[in-house]
Amino acid sequence: MRSLQYRPSSFKQLLFSCGGAQTLARIHALIVISGALAGPHSPGHLIAAYARLGDVAAARAVFRTSSNPTISTWNALIVANSRLGSPADVLRLYRLLAARPGLARPDSSTFTLALRACAHLSDLEAGEEIKNRAADLGYRYDVFVCSSLLNLYAKCGKMDDAVKVFDEMPKRDVVSWTTMITGFVNAGEPLEAIGMYKRMRLEGMEGDGIAMVGLVQASAALGDVRMGCSVHGYMVRREINLDVLVETSLVDMYAKNGFLDTALFIFNRMPYKNVVSWSALISGYAQNGLAGDALSMLIKMQDCGLEPDLVALVSAILACSQMGCLKLGKSIHCFIQRRFEFERISATAVIDMYSKCGSLISARALFDRISSRDLISWNTMIASYGAHGCGKHALSLFREMNKTKINPDQATFASLLSALGHSGFVEEGRYWFDRMVREYRIKPGEKHYACIVDLLARAGHVDKAHELIKSMVIEPGIAVWVALLSGCLNHKRLELGQYIAEKVLNLNPDDLGVYSLVSNVYAAAKNWDKVIEVRKVMKSMGMRKVPGYSLVEVCGQLHAFLMEDKSHPHYEKIAEMLQKLGFEMRKMSYVPKTEFVFHDLEEDVM
DNA sequence: ATAGGGTTAG
């Protein structure tokens, strides 16, 4: 370093390669001693070096020593603020320059930095102003300026405007293409994103790792693991560096779509993982119903010394709702409240958890605390009422929702119709189904038909339900037929029931409950050959599949009950209580339907 | 030599 002391032009290189704060301080000292700052050399590089280390205070201090800062010196200071994540300060500095032309003339870097700050703040208005100013100064078609403008539009949900700018660009590079790809992914248009990539390849441009992240996300959104896999292979073949972000997006793509082994394999081999990588895996487990694995991963993450972020905790909440772990769910909720700001997404997840764990009151209390509810928060609360058999509450909440600016979607109606059905509100159900189609212009899907068929069939309108199915535009699936079938059973329409049962069996259901219903229909019709046949299928399935069970949490302890399961330590007491309850219910004139149930079950429980 | 695009959740 001593030999460099008197050669100020070498400082530039030195500053660029300098590693730590201490080295930088020494170089700074040398620069001061050599008198380089007083000379014609701009302190921009020194400021930039401090910016790279995130030391804005030092960057500012150096800036203040400069008497006539050039635009690069200004830019260096702006970068320092940008690095620190202070977009408001970036804009403040930009405005200072814009307001006083005598200071220094903003260049492409200045505009780019300012536009990026606007994207951070989602400030379209400021962005437009900057864009116009940039155009005036001759930067209208600058690739950097345009790319940051594209990004601003994309972040503000203005893909139409982004497309306009993009199409007018005379030159595009990998960044501008990638901005469009990512923009479409985030806009929920993965097919458009893929289309962009194809166009890019047609123009002879190769994508890099960041572009691949966009494609991996698009594959994940489409549930197209084959495509995701080929993107993965492409990166390996082209020796694109698989950094944390790329690998995390791969873990997410595989995990989300049920390929948890693959996801875990990649995850385990990641040389460096961060909180986001862990969260991606945890959410993958939770989304695939592997609640236990999700929770044990959360614990493992903490054992590795990492603090779970909100995403990991929301996934853990999801796991709790699947397992009915009210106590754990509550404590995670408290943990979230202590550490994070009140936030809509996590609140909605917690509402769902409380509801699924049986605590409807807590769910509603939290719903009332959300000040700006969105579609999903409304849908979740309406579905909660439905699941608890509170059709009235679901309907009145739905009416309240209609007073807001948020329009119900197909999920809202699926929840509403199911709520009305479970409460036996036949007329209301038919009424809202009708309005959904006519007024809200929502095309009924499988779920809606299943709800309405269930509702009609339950109320004894089996033929009407059958007619509705025949009038369906989409191919009726298992759910619809099962709804009708169960109506047939309840109303002793066994001739039709057997015909429907046949249809259901032909669709190869994957659900033991469906076979059980089919078997009951045949049993009611005394078609014993068929009963034996179906039970055989069930038996072979039972070996492969985990049968459904109910869970209840008592004092933080989970108790699971399977069909015909006597393994619980307090089985005797429980059976005794069940008998008592059955007796009480009969006294209140409730007549349980046991006539179709298998004999062994009948003897055991009733 | 300064600047633009990237990972997880209801």
From TrEMBL:
GO terms for biological process: RNA modification. Gene3D superfamilies: Tetratricopeptide repeat domain. Transmembrane segments: none annotated. Keywords: Repeat, Transit peptide. InterPro entries: E_motif, PPR_At4g14850-like_plant, PPR_rpt, TPR-like_helical_dom_sf. PPR repeats lie at residues 142-176, 274-308, 374-408, 409-444. GO terms for molecular function: RNA binding. PANTHER family: DYW DOMAIN-CONTAINING PROTEIN (PTHR47926:SF405), PENTATRICOPEPTIDE REPEAT-CONTAINING PROTEIN (PTHR47926). This is Pentatricopeptide repeat-containing protein At3g25060, mitochondrial.
